[in-house]
Design brief:
The protein contains 10 helices and 7 strands. It is α/β, with parallel strands linked by helices. β6 and β7 form a beta hairpin. α1 packs parallel to α9 and α2 crosses α9. It comes from Streptomyces doebereineriae. Pfam families: SIS_2.
Amino acid sequence: MSVESVSAQGFAEQSLDVLRHVTESAREDVRRAAELIADCIRADGVIHAFGTGHSQAMVLEVAGRAGGLVPTNRLQISDLVLYGGDDPSVLDDPLLEREPGVAVRLYDLAAPHARDLFVIISNSGVNNVIVEMALHARQQGHKILAITSLTHTAAVPAGHASGKKLVDLADVVLDNAAPVGDALLSLPGGGAVGALSSLTGVMLVQMAVAEASGLLLASGQRPPVYVSANVPGGFEGNLELEKRYAGRVRRTAS
């Protein structure tokens, strides 16, 4: 790659090429993901989204946003403090996501119903807490939708004692098409700049939500979706929709 291509235009051109590829190649997988989502909502289930690091950006696309589905719940490591009573100092450990048992505690704090769906997002798909969450959710009978980079996960060893990766435990996998290391534009002497997985991950999430909404409409059910709280009546209307899932979805300041 030339030095000239390390630029705003270089990133725009390459990332748009990947986005076009993803929207075409993922059509069937998006349809299958949408069926999981629609089935969950029809069964009065809740969609629990989990990720760490920058994968939390896609979690926010799933859970509690305008134009998104109401029966969604965001799981995060800070739940150990917010709901589990742990001292805030536990979050000072940058390697907390590698500790065994963390995901099981997060699962227990959320108290999911059997019909709930798990959306687990990780570019590498190998971090201990990610695999532990997928493994535990699967053992409890939940369906799992994974968003990950198949290229990256194939290039790195498993980080969980089971030897499993996220892709091994999911019912449906959406490939974000990110390269190993996530960044697109190679730098002279090594390294790269211009992370991709957030762009493609958001596209995949919104495609799946839109497709699921279409499936619900086709079966005669209005999708329970959020209206922006910054339009007249939006906040009040959202509160009414949330009442159906009282105690099952968390909405904290963010």
